[in-house]
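Saturday, quiet lab. Running sequence design on the structure tokens for the scaffold JK sent over.
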């Protein structure tokens, strides 16, 4: 029983599950699409065996009793701007976007909190008009000229967009994807095999090269 937030469910789970089916045909993987604030308690309570979570570098760490986590991959973030936006240089200063409308995740998620935190460090409180945890929706709103957004590299690897993607000038932003399990459960063969498959899949993504710098 594997929990994963939507971007990881699309970008990591299919490859890992296919590897598991080939190597361990009797191992059944059941996927539950959950945000980290939902999946971590589920791991603690035994409702999930493991979860893919994320941790933003500007936000406090969430700790769940009885649950241990380990790093899976680093996921850089870019600013997504509508085509022709005047701030679209080699890198974008968030302080230059104080008059823009923003697009962010739902208010109970870290995808929302990171926008508030990053803009606060740039000296202002963002005006957020649209909320979605689906980055295909976020990018469609940006493309339509309705606002700007922060988008992780992993979300961009399976989407085509006409939005302008640039790194943050003040300081690079990123989030770390992690694997969370109940303490001691990695000794279980099924859990160990799933962790290994996720790590192999993550290693093939080459996420050290931000999508915002790709052709």
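Result came back. Writing it out in full:
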């Amino acid at each position: 029983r594997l929990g994963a937030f939507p971007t990881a469910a699309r970008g990591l789970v299919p490859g890992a599950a296919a590897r598991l089916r080939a190597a361990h045909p009797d191992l059944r993987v059941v996927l539950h699409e959950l945000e980290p604030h939902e999946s971590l308690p589920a791991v603690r309570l035994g409702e999930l065996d493991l979860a893919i979570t994320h941790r933003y570098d500007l936000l406090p760490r969430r700790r769940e009793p009885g649950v241990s986590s380990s790093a899976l991959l680093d996921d850089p973030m870019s600013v997504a701007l509508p085509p022709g936006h005047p701030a679209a240089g080699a890198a974008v200063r968030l302080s230059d976007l104080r008059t823009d409308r923003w697009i962010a995740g739902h208010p109970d998620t870290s995808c929302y909190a990171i926008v508030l935190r990053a803009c606060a460090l740039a000296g202002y409180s963002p005006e957020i008009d649209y909320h979605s945890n689906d980055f295909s929706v976020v990018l469609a709103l940006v493309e339509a000229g309705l606002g700007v957004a922060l988008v992780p590299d992993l979300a961009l690897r399976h989407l085509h967009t006409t939005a302008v993607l640039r790194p943050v000038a003040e300081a690079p932003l990123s989030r770390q994807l992690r694997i969370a399990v109940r303490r001691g459960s990695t000794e279980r063969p099924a859990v160990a095999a799933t962790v290994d498959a996720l790590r192999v899949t993550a290693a093939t993504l080459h996420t050290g090269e931000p999508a915002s710098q790709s052709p």
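Notes for JK: The longest helix spans residues 189-203. The mean pLDDT is 91. Ask whether to fix the surface positions before the next round.
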